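Technical annex B. To support the medicinal chemistry partners, we prepared a structural model of the target in complex with magnesium ion, based solely on the information shown next.
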Amino acid sequence: MNKKGQGDLMVPNKLTFTPLFRQALPVLKQLTDHGYEAYFVGGSVRDALLGLEVNDIDIATSALPEEIKEIFPRTVDVGIDHGTVMVMVDGEAYEITTFRTESTYQDFRRPDSVEFVRSLREDLQRRDFTINAMAVDETGAIYDYYDGRADLEEGIIRAVGEADERFNEDALRMMRAVRFSAQLGFDIEASTELAIKENASLLEHIAVERIHIEFVKLMCSQARAKGLKSMLKTKLFEYCPELARNKLALMYLSNHEGDLQSEQQAWSLLVHYMNFLMPTNYRVDIRQFLRQWKSSNQVIAAVEAIVSGIQKRQATEMMDPFDIYQLGAELARDVEYLLTLIDGSGRPDEATAMHQSLQIKSQQELAISGADVMKLTDQKPGPWLGDVLAQLVEEVVYGRLDNNETILLAYVSEHLI
Ligand code: ATP
Ligand code: MG
């Protein structure tokens, strides 16, 4: 990974294609064989030049969407108004986007309509940062009109053209800047950073869902501290849901080392610090907080469980088997992993081992069912049945009873009815 100051990254003059790019070459070739220009562009070129793993390849061409569709037999209109057509070649899907400019910006968001152009240079000009504005042709030659390679080598995020204008066109770019800074460990160039500071409030025009994506990526990046410090310095955080009054928690999050591995881990650690910094006994309303961020119900439930798991665990030596059972393998591990970051007390491997050694992982795994209990008691089902099963689960999870049909039935008749 390139970090400023290390200066050890020499970006090559030509891209050596990895297998993924080689596999995509026929797509470029078919377009050029028909007389159009075609290039690999954007994030895939950036990551390839950095020697990072590339997962999806973006292709740009001078061919218009209709022209692309004439060339490839199998296509899907994924965003045809914006000039993007998905083509299937050798069982792989590729997104091909016609060279375009984005001229009509409304409300500081990406434009509703685009204008197709025939020149690569113009297409690259509408892209956000110099490191994202490079193209590579089928020979591996790099087209770098905005000095993206130099910025890659220096570790710099710099807007293409006039930063102030670019953030006025699309305010999400400011969040992308801090996110790339966190992902790549790059610094944001001074005039780009100043423009973010001056335009931070424009973020209010951007859909929360889109800010969410960038913020979670930032928190889960190796250089999280760098990205968060940029958010604090530029005041971008003040225009994110609920973060304005949680500046200290963000500072905590930026001062504590350790990778965050998932969205639920990231939110949980942030909420943990928010709680930590609140007056005693005051707890963040996690549901309300994450609803502002438009998080899914599944993530909200996971964060609630993890945060209370951490609280409980901080008051005791180790989770007991029933805590582990209730949390399940993943969340129990999340709790312990986050404790390793919070105060070094976490024991994730132990949590995993404890979960593996539980006799049952769910009520369904009990050796007897609700029907068996009803047969035994000859009673109608009701809330009592749930209570009996819950009691059995607890006995089995704590290892006080073996998960064995005869033993459980005997226990029910002796103690529970
Ligand atoms: P990643 O895929 O790792 O999130 P990326 O740079 O590939 O990063 P994408 O959203 O996949 O980001 O976009 C692909 C390319 O499209 C970018 O590299 C950039 O050239 C351009 N792009 C994306 N979003 C914007 C934007 N908001 N403004 C200008 N250009 C953009
Ligand atoms: Mg991408």
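Notes passed to the chemistry partners:
The longest strand covers residues 92-98.
The CA atoms of residues 19 and 380 lie 64 Å apart.
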